[in-house]
């Protein structure tokens, strides 16, 4: 694992990011999409790169049997304390799981940090191997212009301009410590379905999680006042092609062919 990425996650801040403030929008929208596309519980779900178990927690509470695989020892330790979740170390590109053994495989983080396309396709191919025929593979990606929009929103674009502009041009973000992130690959909107297809998962559909809402001023207040309306609107526009590239995060979903 990339040492910069490992050091970033060893700080133990990812769990809090999704449970507080604006980050809750990403969590709630991930729940909204996955609850519609996953098999009905009880299903066996392999949560690859599942971090501290933020998503595994609600999946288990929904009645799924969740196996979490993550390359960060701290995450495995944290996730192993979540009721109903089994956690172990592992790499998305070489999963410690039998063929066709899961009803669904989630990659809600690994594709962020595999900067080489061959590695991303390999991880998706592993997910396709582990899921049963007809089962679901879902993967999260970060939008190509997410760093640009985020730094502009935070009034820090000028100070990080060289790094941000390089990420727009190449997709590879070599984040500085001041940016609050780490090395990542930022996808163009049309890339994930093509990577899915090359991994043997044709017919993928993408769902923008935050749309343009994450760029709104006063988002936290809006979520407190009218969360239901925000989620309703985002669901209505989640697959509009012209908005996919604006969303900070996108989930792409396909079923393994029978």
From TrEMBL:
GO terms in the biological process aspect are: methylation
Has the keyword Methyltransferase been applied to this entry? yes
Assigned keywords, A-Z: Methyltransferase, Transferase
Q: Which domain of life is it from?
A: Bacteria
One Pfam family assigned to this protein is Methyltransf_11
Which GO terms fall under molecular function for this chain's record?
S-adenosylmethionine-dependent methyltransferase activity
Q: Which InterPro entries match?
A: Diverse_substrate_MTase (IPR051052), Methyltransf_11 (IPR013216), SAM-dependent_MTases_sf (IPR029063)
Q: Does the keyword Flavoprotein apply?
A: no
Segments forming domain Methyltransferase type: 46-138
Family recorded in the similarity comment? Belongs to the methyltransferase superfamily.
Put simply, this protein is called Methyltransferase domain-containing protein
Q: What is the originating organism of this protein?
A: Actinomadura montaniterrae
